[in-house]
Amino acid sequence: MSESLPSVVAAEMRVLDPLIAAQKLLHLIEGADRSGVLALLVDGATVDDVAGSTELELNVVAAIVDALLVANVVEPVDDAIRLTPDWQTVCSSAGMRPLRATLEGERVGAELLRRVGEGDDYWTLSQDDQVALAASLSPDPTQGALVPTLPVQAAAGAPLEAAASTAQRYLELGCGLAGYTLSLLQAFPHLTVVGVELSADLADEAERRAASLGLQDRFSVVRSNAADFESVEQFDMGFWSQFFFAQSFRAGALQTLFDHVRSGGLVAAPVVQPTGDEPDAVLRRAALLRVMTESWGV
């Protein structure tokens, strides 16, 4: 069926324009974060103030601010421009990870989605992109916002946190950057952890984070396939970060977990499975994430 030009234009405005605008807005926000513009707008600043504190020209700052105003990222307050309350919260250190980590990782994930069908997967990414993607999917333990909530969750009977509150030895298969694990170590000082990670880049970053937090004596990473890990000592609990495990590696990893966790210990292997009751935006992100992981054989 042939369509008239006005109907095509109208359809593009309905379905393409919002997506294109959202994509470009995320890139603009990431750039504004990198250049320091967002930080200047947290408490409010004028266009002149922002231009004077950055290397950006005044007309460029004015255009950025106008775009952020249209997108409800900032709002006018008296004679200045300030981030809206929601964006102040998003940019604060009270979340699971810095805004920059989320945006950088999502950009890497978006590029992987663009290349679905070309044979690219996690292992074809550059070192920086591997770390960026992993950092966007786990808590940043150096930010520390998660740590105070863990004893509360343990007291409320959350299985993993309750087990960690009394365990001595904890094994994590596929520890990645160890964001949650290093948070547990901060919350429960009696705990020691051995992580198993195939990616040397992620293992290196996990160890760097542990050292920066003074946890290197209670955290170690074995660079190995999870199925090949061996230890003469048993663990009180084990966690399988199966998120990045392709189908061919799953049976061996699960066997390692059961071989090394003592009788009566806790074994956790959570999955990401939306219930269908989540907001539409959450369901859309979950569906896109599934496309990426399915293309990797996960």
User: What's the β-strand tally?
Assistant: 7
User: What structural class should be given to the helix and strand makeup?
Assistant: alpha/beta
Query: Treating each run of at least 4 consecutive H or I residues as one helix, how many helices?
Result: 13
> Main sheet: which strands, in order across?
5-4-3-6-7
Instruction: Give the radius of gyration.
Output: 23 Å
Largest sheet: 5 strands, parallel
Name the beta content range: 5-15%
Low-confidence stretches: none
Shape: globular
What letter string, H or E per element, gives the SSE order? Answer: HHHHEEHHHHHEHEHEEHEH
> Which percent range fits the helix content?
40-55%
Taking the alpha carbons of the first and last residues, their distance comes to: 40 Å
Provide mean pLDDT, rounded: 93
Give a structural overview.
The chain has 298 residues and is α/β, with parallel strands linked by helices. It is built from 13 helices and seven strands. The strands form two sheets. A five-stranded parallel sheet has the order 5-4-3-6-7, with helices on both faces. Strands 1-2 form a two-stranded antiparallel ribbon. β4, α11 and β5 form a beta-alpha-beta unit. α1 packs across α6, α3 (47-53) crosses α4 (58-70) and α6 (99-114) packs across α7 (127-135). The protein starts with a helix and ends with a helix.
